[in-house]
């Protein structure tokens, strides 16, 4: 048995994707995730950063989601719910669909 210890920046999306890919590879029979104990100050700072990020994201999304775009998204969701979509299960099916246009 071999033990591998990995430390990475948990706020890094790239690091999380690489760790997820590594875990999905099936090379590990047991996975243990240890999170460091945070002080109350660190918890407060993390919450403040998260709240600031979410507030900024909501403002940006409000700028991106114009009423016209929102109508298009709602229309697409309705069509999907009603089964008015084309599904391609393989890259070949998708290519055949594009070739038919």
Offer a quick outline of the entry:
The protein is mainly alpha-helical and 101 residues long. The protein contains 4 helices and no strands.
Structure description:
There is one protein chain. This protein has one domain. With 101 residues, the chain is an all-alpha fold. The N and C termini lie far apart (56 Å).
The biggest beta sheet reads: none
By DSSP, the count of extended strands is 0
Q: Which descriptor suits the 3D outline?
A: flat
The total number of structural domains is 1
The rounded Rg comes to 22 Å
Mean of residue pLDDT values: 81
| SS summary, helix count | 4
What is the helix fraction of residues, given as a range?
55-70%
What is the CA–CA distance across the termini?
Answer: 56 Å
Please report which band the strand proportion falls in: under 5%, 5-15%, 15-25%, 25-35%, 35-45% or over 45%: under 5%
What is the succession of H and E elements? HHHH
Please mark out the parts with pLDDT under 50 across 5 or more consecutive residues, or reply none: none
Output the structural class: mainly alpha
Task: Please give a handful of descriptors for the protein shown.
101 residues
Structural topology:
Blueprint: H1 13-24, H2 40-64, H3 67-81, H4 91-100
